[in-house]
Design goal:
heterodimer; A: alpha+beta; six-stranded antiparallel β-sheet; 16 strands; B: Multidrug efflux transporter AcrB transmembrane fold; four-stranded antiparallel β-sheet
Chain lengths: 280, 914
């Protein structure tokens, strides 16, 4: 159904991994992939990390064979073949035979569109006020967050018609109501990219997280930097995943930026790769 | 049979040369014999469940595994973990090992910074005991390895060696190499052992070879003692040993030729041949010596032996052969092989006996007996007489005692358990069994079965609804026994879900979308043992340590019921696996046990009923042999001896042997009764003639079977003890029930009492039996009675009720018409001599007699009553139709004769009147 082959970054890790006994059978593929992508990797300073299909490992490149229906399969190497894949998807509407096949296409499409997003604007950007910001340990209220009244279902970016890239304008969080009496709460802050506990809003409109319940809620899986809206200011593209059962697992992409080092992060109103963008 | 025995008595060198030639041929095949223990041989051949399981193994994979287990209270120590890692590497490098699975190799699926990492649990050795404990706890939380690679108490770790590497190796080599590889661990861990079916088979094979050498001398010794007690002749004592030795050689030759291996069960055949094969030898030798003691020369004694025992040895061989062969009818491979080998061995022993004994006796039989044997002989005759008197005096008490024993035994039968586990056969003293016991203590166990759930539709188990079905079944099975290890594809999805949600408490995905998202990160190779690539078929693997067959059956039954009642109708479920096949084999074993015993008893009843032309005799003769069966099963129930691969053979084999003694008794009694016509004399002579051979052969067999008690295989020990019990009980029954039963029956039939002249001359020439076959005449004769009349005695008078017709067997009967006048001589109507029938006209007309009938000389009449004729008509219509045709023809002939006789005087009167 899905066959993925590894190709990792940096070089050493990739080579060691591919030489491990588990992947001995894939060694020729790996070597070929490493050799083929070596120049690109060397020159590419904005290579996003992906979850490799089939393993979930962190990789910068992977090869996948996708079911194209009628017993046909199409092989893509992400991100090198992303243009070909997007062209294929945009050429005509597709109806996938099964949820699994649909999920595979969606995942590859999302990875490719994300890759395109990062390479949307000119480079290198002239001004950078975001890369010094510690997103992985940021208090939540320093990020653009929207509290949704409609509950978890509304938090899925896929609920929005035509939205296939996972890009959101605000980090959507469900409003769980008031904490039970006596529930200790604390400021909501990411710790190494992980937010734990239920989120509440106090009377002053401030986000608070429960201290007792330390179940993971949200994971910031990556922060990439690029000028996605072409304003020659570096943007930070954050990818979040929800960690609660029943929540969509596809990453939400939250592009943020700021004009001054001490300004608050704001979202970029973004029309999509290749289109212009407005900021709030 | 008589002719065969005499043939080799007359041409001894021909027989001996034939034996030598075949023995040389057999010897050429000995090199091909191998000791082989195959686990599949314990299963039912041709079982549809087995074919299904093979298909399941093909789909989901099946790998032979040897588990290396290291336990220590202080296992959370980096030095110990490193040593275990080194052992893992050594084991992995063995040429017959495809791979190892341990905490050093199996993936620990988890999330690091939002990405999945699946490096092994112990990829690097943690430095502190706390860290090691944390890893062990994480591993123990994984249902796919809990109880398999990590002990329940987290103080034991296992390395699973998946066999099947490039170089195949035999069990001995695997066992030795693995032992060498783990030897350095022993001084660092409290307990280290390797256990798997390779170890079990290796131990079984080793013990079989050792026991062949240990038990055979004991069996030979037991036979020698019994032979010495009976025969007291060097030649006679050695003869059964020679025939048994040749039989073993031929049997091994046959096994080598057919490629039948020596295994736990077939390894018992040589001893059985020594013990069982000697019985016919003893009977033949005893009969020969008996004839010699009567003063006969060798040739005459040989003829007497052939005449008296020819048919008996043939029949007793047939029943014993059937006993062994019936075990071979079992669908279980080892029992089937045993039945084939043992029955073939017995057949060869029989052939060797009827060639060798007459040949040898014709050459050496003239050697004289010693005086002690004769003294013994006189004592025995007195003893037999006194015993028979006592038995008759206490007849009711003896029968009552036996009845009580039978009832008590019958009450114990429901207590019998079933045990069909190869490991159980190793016994308590076995190191491998002890290791398996230790493994069962700390781990999930070596045994397993699978629940296959399927829909036939692709991606079924990627739907939350059907995934929940798997989870429900798993939960039900886990609730049955907390020590069960139950794993499925759903568990892997849970692990993946936990990794992606970074929450060790997360459960399974709850929607199709969630499953589809998880599937993005699932490598099917990780779950190929649990679900097919198209996700239409899933396997739930249950590992357990339930060795008790009844408990296992109950557990599987409950799971089966649950599946039937609760599983989604769109899914089909089957339980399969070694445990299931083992149960199937157990059922077959029980059915086979019953079938074998019934077959032997049925054959015995048929033989006896045929010989005595009376089914009742057959049924009554079965009593002394049904009694030991009852006692056997009762003892098994009370003593807690289970029905297993060994004990399942005991009843059939022992009964096959035990009926021989009954047959010897009955045939001898029949001979004696025909000779003496006195039940008292016949029974006394029977006891005298048969007591010594029967007691001797039974004693030899009891001692011989007890030799098996020295075996280290539990089923073989139980087989030996139970067989000895059956033979002993049958011996007692033969001396109590058989004489009493025989004395209550008319074992000598009318057919037997008819002299051979009558049978050969009168009956076939009688108009009544014209055109009838001998067995039809025999049926008719057996429903008649014989009456003797002195000269002048009246057979019937006028006006008597006509309720019988008469066939003159010898003498003459005169028929007269009574006249009214005093002193007038009654006119003679007819005279009937041997072979002629009379009294039939009035009988058929259903009128009172019109004539008188009286014997003119000593006369014997066969009387067939109206009731007997009705019975023949009802039960044997073909015989009756022929009989009535003959009667009609005879009456017509007599009518024509009568008319011719009457017509002469009438014509003369007419002429005189005219």
């Amino acid at each position: 159904m899905i066959q993925a082959h590894c190709s990792r970054h940096p070089w050493l890790g990739s080579t060691l991994r591919c030489l491990s006994s588990r992947y001995l059978g894939l060694l020729p593929w790996c070597l070929a992939g490493i050799l083929a992508t070596a120049p690109a990797l060397a020159s590419d300073d904005n290579s996003p990390q992906f979850r490799e299909p089939g393993s979930g490992h962190r990789v910068s490149r992977y090869t996948i064979e996708l079911d194209a229906g009628n017993g046909n399969a199409l092989s893509y190497r992400v991100p090198d073949d992303c243009a070909r894949l997007i062209a294929h998807l945009d050429a005509a509407p597709h109806h996938w035979a099964t949820p699994t096949v649909r999920q595979a296409w969606r995942k590859v499409e999302a990875d490719c569109r994300y890759y395109q997003l990062l390479h949307n604007g000119p480079r290198p950007p002239l001004t950078d006020h975001v890369s010094s910001f510690d997103f992985m340990n940021a208090p939540l209220d320093q990020l653009p967050v929207t509290v949704l009244e409609d509950g978890p279902a509304a938090m899925s970016p896929r609920q929005q018609p035509g939205q296939r890239t996972g890009i959101v304008e605000h980090l959507p969080l469900a409003k769980p109501g008031s904490p039970a009496a006596g529930t200790p709460v604390t400021i909501c802050r990411l710790r190494d990219g992980l937010l734990r506990g239920d989120v509440f809003i106090d009377d002053g409109g401030t986000l608070r997280c429960s201290k007792g319940d330390r179940r993971p809620t949200l994971r910031l899986i990556s922060v990439d930097f690029a000028d996605i809206d072409g304003d020659q200011v570096t943007d930070a593209i954050l990818r979040f995943v929800f960690l609660r059962p029943g929540m969509p697992r596809g990453p939400m992409i939250l592009p943020v930026t700021r004009d001054r080092p001490d300004a608050a992060m704001r979202t970029i109103r973004f029309q999509g790769p290749g289109a212009g963008a407005d900021t709030e | 049979m008589q002719r065969l025995l005499l043939l080799f008595a007359n041409r001894p060198w021909l027989g001996l040369a034939a034996l030598l030639l075949v023995s040389l041929l057999a010897a050429t095949q000995l090199g091909r014999i191998e000791v082989r223990i195959a686990p599949d041989d314990m299963l039912l051949a041709g079982d549809p469940q087995r074919a299904y399981y093979e298909q399941v193994k093909e789909t989901f994979g099946d790998e032979q595994v040897v588990l290396v287990v290291a336990s220590d209270p202080g296992i959370a120590d980096s030095d110990r973990i490193d040593r275990l890692r080194q052992a893992d590497q050594r084991l992995r490098s063995l040429p017959f090992v495809a791979r190892t699975e341990s905490l050093f190799t199996v993936p620990h699926v988890r999330s690091v910074d939002g990405f999945i990492v699946d490096s092994p649990y112990l990829e690097k050795t943690p430095e502190t005991a706390e860290e090691i404990d944390r890893v062990l706890t994480q591993a123990a939380a994984n249902p796919l390895i809990r109880g398999l690679l990590v002990g329940m108490d987290q103080r034991s770790l296992a390395i699973a060696l998946v066999l099947g590497g490039g170089k195949a190796a035999n069990d001995a080599r695997v066992t030795a190499a693995v032992d060498d590889a783990i030897a350095p661990l022993r001084e660092h861990f409290a307990s280290v052992y390797a256990v798997g079916f390779a170890q079990v088979r290796d131990e079984l094979a080793g013990r079989i070879v050792a026991e062949q050498a240990e038990l055979l001398p004991w069996a030979i010794g037991a036979l020698l003692i019994a032979l010495f007690l009976l025969l007291r002749q060097v030649v006679d004592i050695l003869t059964p040993l020679v025939t048994a030795g040749i039989s073993i050689l031929w049997t091994y030759g046959l096994m080598g030729w057919l490629g039948i291996p020596v295994n736990v069960v077939t390894s018992t055949v040589p001893i059985l041949l020594i013990v069982v094969g000697s019985t016919e030898d003893i009977h033949l030798l005893a009969e020969f010596r008996h004839a010699q003691r009567r003063g006969n020369e060798t040739a005459t004694a040989l003829r007497a032996m052939a005449r008296k025992l020819g048919r008996t040895v043939m029949l007793t061989f047939a029943t014993t052969f059937a006993g062994f062969l019936s075990v071979g009818l079992s669908g279980i491979e080892v029992l089937s092989q045993f039945g084939l080998v043992a029955s073939a061995g017995l057949l060869m022993n029989f052939v060797i006996t009827i060639i060798f004994i007459p040949a040898l006796l014709s050459l050496t039989g003239h050697w004289q007996l010693d005086g002690r044997t004769r003294l013994f002989d006189r004592r025995l005759r007195d003893l037999a007489t006194r015993y028979w008197q006592q038995l008759q005096n206490h007849r009711n008490r003896a029968l009552a005692a036996l009845g009580i024993i039978a009832v008590i035994a019958a009450a114990g039968i429901p207590r019998i358990d079933v045990q069909h586990n190869p490991v159980a056969s190793l016994g308590q003293s076995s190191r491998v069994a002890a290791d398996i016991g230790a493994l069962n203590e700390g781990f999930a166990g070596l045994e397993s079965f699978s629940i296959i759930v399927e829909s036939g539709i692709q991606e079924t188990f990627l739907h939350a609804r059907y995934l929940d079905e798997l989870i429900d079944v798993q939960a039900f099975v886990r609730d049955l026994d907390e020590r069960l290890s139950v794993s499925s594809f759903a568990d892997y999805l849970v692990l993946l879900n936990q990794a992606l949600l970074e929450d060790p408490a997360a459960g399974p995905p709850t929607s199709n979308e969630e499953i589809a998202e998880l599937m993005l990160f699932l490598d099917h190779a990780r779950v190929s043992a649990y679900v097919t690539e198209d996700f239409s078929r899933a396997r739930i693997v249950v590992r357990h340590q339930v060795s008790d067959t009844a408990r296992l059956r109950d557990m599987l039954q409950r799971i089966g019921d649950h599946l039937e009642q609760h599983l989604d109708p769109g899914l089909d479920a089957h339980i399969t696996g070694d445990s299931m096949l083992s149960l199937s084999a157990t059922d077959s074993m029980i059915a086979g046990q019953l079938q074998s015993v019934l077959l032997i008893l049925g054959l015995f009843i048929a033989i006896v009923a045929f010989i005595f032309t009376d089914l009742r005799v057959g049924l009554l003769a079965a009593l002394p042999n049904a009694f030991p069966v009852l006692v056997l099963f009762g003892c098994m129930g009370y003593a807690g001896i289970p029905l297993n691969i060994g004990t399942t053979m005991a009843a059939a084999i022992a009964i096959g042997i035990a009926v021989d003694d009954t047959l010897h008794f009955m045939l001898r009694y029949n001979q004696e009764l025909r000779a003496s016509r006195s039940q008292q004399i016949a029974m006394r002579n029977t006891l005298y003639e048969e007591a010594l051979p029967v007691i001797s052969t039974s004693s030899a067999m009891i001692i011989g079977f007890l030799v098996f008690a020295g075996s280290s295989f539990v089923p073989v020990v139980q087989f030996g003890l139970l067989s000895a019990l059956v033979i002993a009980t049958a011996l007692i029954a033969d001396f109590l029930i058989t004489p009493l039963a025989m004395s209550s029956l008319r074992l000598v039939t009318l057919w037997d009492l008819l002299s051979s002249r009558m049978r050969q001359q009168v009956i076939p020439n009688s108009p009544l039996f014209r055109g009838m076959r001998e067995w039809q005449i025999r049926k008719f004769v057996l429903s008649s009675t014989l009456l003797d009349f002195a000269p002048g005695a009246t057979v019937y008078r006028r006006d008597d009720t006509s309720d019988a017709l008469y066939l003159v067997m010898r003498g003459t009967v005169e028929i007269t018409v009574p006249t009214q006048g005093e002193g007038r001589k009654d006119p003679v109507v007819d005279r009937f001599t041997a072979g002629q029938v009379f009294g039939d006209v009035a009988l058929l007309a259903n009128e009172p007699r019109k004539t008188n009938a009286k014997a003119l000389e000593p006369t014997t009449l066969m009387v067939l009553t109206r009731d007997a004729m009705d019975n023949v008509t009802r039960l044997h219509p073909f015989i009756a139709s022929r009989l009535f045709y003959n009667l009609a023809r005879d009456v017509s002939c007599r009518w024509v004769t009568f008319m011719t006789r009457v017509k002469g005087p009438l014509d003369r009167d007419k002429r005189e009147d005219g």
